[in-house]
Amino acid sequence: MNMWTNPWPPLEILSDEDVEAIDATALRILEEVGHRVTYPRTLALLRDAGLAIDGDTVRFDRDFIREAVARAPSRFEMRARNPEKGFVIGDNHMVNSPTGGAPFVSDLDGGRRPGNVEDYIKLIQVAHVSPQIHCIDSGIVETMDLPVASKHLDMDYLAMRYSDKPLMTVGATYETSRDAVEMAAILFGGAQAIEQTPGVIGIVNPASPLVWDDRMLGSVHALAAANQALIVTPFLMAGTTAPVTLAGALAQWCAENLAGIAIIQTIRPGCPVVFGGYLTATDMALGQPTLGSPEWSMSILAGAQLARHYRLPFRGAGGWSSAKTVDAQAGYETVMGTWPALLSGTHFMLHAAGALESTMIISAEKMVMDLEVLRMFEWMLDPGLPVNDDTLAYDAIAKTGPGRTYLRASHTRTHHRSALYRSELASLEDVNLWRQQGSKDAQIRANERYKRMLAAYEDPGLDGAIDAELQEFIARRKEQLAKAR
Amino acid sequence: MNMWTNPWPPLEILSDEDVEAIDATALRILEEVGHRVTYPRTLALLRDAGLAIDGDTVRFDRDFIREAVARAPSRFEMRARNPEKGFVIGDNHMVNSPTGGAPFVSDLDGGRRPGNVEDYIKLIQVAHVSPQIHCIDSGIVETMDLPVASKHLDMDYLAMRYSDKPLMTVGATYETSRDAVEMAAILFGGAQAIEQTPGVIGIVNPASPLVWDDRMLGSVHALAAANQALIVTPFLMAGTTAPVTLAGALAQWCAENLAGIAIIQTIRPGCPVVFGGYLTATDMALGQPTLGSPEWSMSILAGAQLARHYRLPFRGAGGWSSAKTVDAQAGYETVMGTWPALLSGTHFMLHAAGALESTMIISAEKMVMDLEVLRMFEWMLDPGLPVNDDTLAYDAIAKTGPGRTYLRASHTRTHHRSALYRSELASLEDVNLWRQQGSKDAQIRANERYKRMLAAYEDPGLDGAIDAELQEFIARRKEQLAKAR
What we know:
2 copies of one chain form a homodimer.
Chain A: E1 4-5, H1 16-33, E2 35-37, H2 40-48, E3 52-54, E4 57-59, H3 62-70, E5 76-78, E6 87-89, E7 93-96, E8 104-107, E9 111-114, H4 117-129, E10 136-137, H5 151-162, E11 167-168, H6 174-188, H7 191-196, E12 201-204, E13 211-212, H8 214-225, E14 229-232, E15 235-238, H9 246-267, E16 273-276, E17 278-283, E18 288-290, H10 294-309, E19 314-317, H11 328-344, E20 348-350, E21 355-356, E22 361-363, H12 364-381, H13 389-392, H14 394-400, H15 410-419, H16 431-436, H17 442-455, H18 464-484
Parallel strand pairs in A: 2-13, 7-20, 8-22, 10-11, 12-14, 14-16, 15-17, 16-19, 19-20
Antiparallel strand pairs in A: 1-7, 2-4, 3-4, 5-6, 8-9, 17-18, 21-22
């Protein structure tokens, strides 16, 4: 299994009374305000389940919600085609996924440009070679140069082809998610195999506030019917799609998650789900989201605490920023968000690397910077700070004695490689050497490292028969899609 | 009183057994290895206290250490000449001080240059106008253009003159610290006043490993005799001045603190002290310290935990970096260190703003960036995440309803100013607007803000009679120092 283990107790910023009050407000929203549900299949399902439905407004009573949510597992496993790279979502584990969904891509060489297949493949390859990335996002960047109707097939395929890590699918409608399920079944040896242990994770978003629409519910039905993993992800901007006060936004966050999870558990009891979301502020003058802001830091801590209240795994996010370039803002906003991911006990960290411009772009240099940040956390989690006779080093201290240096101590020679962190990005040399070497700032250094990482990519290969079957499936589906137009 | 209150429980990364093992090793170092103590006055004092002394090697027995350390208060107050700006060091409070001791200063306009009086005054002024800075460091930058023998008088005076916040003195010998005490007595109405509540804080460093030298012990004696506050600050680089393994470095950190604090408590029982230090790694290839590294993050969490074991306030550090410019590295390293300051329950955060190049320079733009980071934390601590009927916003949620926006809700209009954080530095606008406005990265924006902060400085004034007395004292001391040469 390939994931982090997080030994830190969660930082809880809500009191028990706060949690109760937010939960009570969420249940009241579910019961009294309800949700708009615009997918007939879901409406029929919920009507059959005995819920009060008025037009397309569904009011969820609390017993229904509680019983449905209680069916969701608190942990589950994900498949990888390299069995060593599967992971657990839940317990005290954490997995990282790169940023997803950006329409633009950027690097110092080519500037900012629409997402395209060439960069898509490079970014998948870098995610594949990065030990700190556990999950591949088949929406790592948009592919504007592919036909809209069928690009989900190509993107899922390329992610399957160029990496052997677990896969998040880009599918977000009934048809596209259904295609992802079928391709995962081909990749992993059949529908039964992935029904047992999911082969694909999907992200499903309500249209906040309080709407579950037909496109997204299609995706929910396709994935849940096949027992694939779903991450429910309200996109909440306090002041726009949620109340401007965080407590109210959290209540809505819970309501939307509970509605989504209850629907999933009604379709398929026991289906693996993740309580997820994204709650940040709106800059009221600009109408823009503020990523890496303190609202985000607080909401991720509180959101994870609420997910624990419901005994559900939690999806957060981390390394993102509103900055336009890989500058100091990109650095500080990223780590403002990454610490809370660890401190909250986040199980699945989406947007863990690469996001700039509030996820409008994935930047090659930002990806490298974020991977360096993740490496630092990885080092803190393991080895952590081991205390034993060897590390306490009494003999070395006694032998070195007052006023002398440890530089040449045999204890130092024995331990320095394992004891100290080694950065792959930071400038640690003195200013004179730095100037001699071209006064390269972190963005330039990251660009150089990005190329080294790409060069280090080794193709994990793909079984020829499986590859042929996938290609055949894709060709058939493209033909159907062309006819359907 | 002017300080932060930190509501978060500390993140403890050491087990109780780890703490016991580190403490036991520290005591063994104190008893069996001992310290070199090269100041006759301290040696005499310790001999009188019954310690075993062999040449200049002092072996501290554990009962002596424990009894002496138990005399130190676990909290104390500091004076400010503006009574509203005094603060508490201890309990769950936190105060921030800018970086200190940098020989160079830098800004985008003038580049990197030796510290000088003109920049010194500007930096004191910016620290004064920054609500996130609670303590003024009279060593905020070196003043290379002042005579070495007497510049401590000018620096302490300028810090007293241009700010009315509590003061950290640059004094670091018997004479210079004695001068600081006398000037503080003039500023605060006499020796008795500052004896009751300290008027000045001094930093005292052992020459690690395990040496307390005559210069620094002179400062210890001058400050402790007058009951002024002392922060004991070993400068530990794992692999150079401390064992390469963090556990051993922590044991040495404790030993050096306990020796220093025991000396202080022997000079003056009950004297306010802070368990402090600086433990980071050495880049073994370059021989450079690595600031903002994960070793630093871990050591600050562990160091604060050890200080709690001894029931002493803890001095950490935060916003620093090994970067050479205000780039992404400066951003991410800074926040890698600032979170642990908050999470560890650090009481006094030195180097909270301005440090680049591993504290070789104070950068105007870095200072502004760090102040923005501190503002973000301040917002998280207060108001935090209040949960009540008003913030839960049920009525706003019900009234807005599914699929509509909160942008025009009356709840949003009522609360958005208080509910949301407003950045003074970040680029939040979209990329087109950002380009129209000159594609300014965070460093350029920080430069602009630095100038606005300077322009906003308002002179707090200084009582004419006190000013005259300080000037007279300084003139007399300069005359004496000139004669002594």
